[in-house]
Amino acid sequence: MAEKAYAEEARKQAKRQIELAEQEFTNAKRIRQQAQAELDKAYALKEHAMKQINSTMLQITCHACKQQFQARNATPDENSLVLSYVSSAITTEGGEVENDNGKDHGKDN
Q: Which residues, other chains included, contact 95 with Cβ-Cβ below 8 Å and sequence gap of 6+?
């Protein structure tokens, strides 16, 4: 009789463990879905920010630089293009900006 009671208790514990495992699995799936939604949102924000940066860069540059930037922007890696373009501009004394191909851009351009 003790063996039956022991077996019954083992079955109950196994059933509880299965239920807990199912709950944990459901919770893990929910957490994963939330993380995926946050990742998707982050990608959308990144894409929106890149479009705003590209738009702003095109608005604040001279015509020659605008054409150069658009030509560079035709390649797939937009992030490195914007960073490359921005980092290539070096502020000189007197408030003028000189980019990597030597063009000076003063306040009158």
A: 106, 107
Secondary structure of the chain as H, E, C letters: CHHHHHHHHHHHHHHHHHHHHHHHHHHHHHHHHHHHHHHHHHHHHHHHHHHHHHHHHHHHCCHHHHHHHHHHCCCCCHHHHHHHHHHHCEECCCCCEECCCCCEECCCC
Q: Which residues does residue 90 pair with via DSSP β-bridges, in sequence order?
A: 98
Instruction: Express each pLDDT in 95-108 by its tens digit.
Output: 444 444 444 554 44
* Residue spans per domain, the chain: 1-60, 62-109
Strand order from edge to edge, sheet including 90-91: 90-91, 97-98, 104-105
Tens-digit pLDDT profile for residues 23-81: 999 999 999 999 999 999 999 999 999 999 888 877 776 777 767 767 776 655 555 54
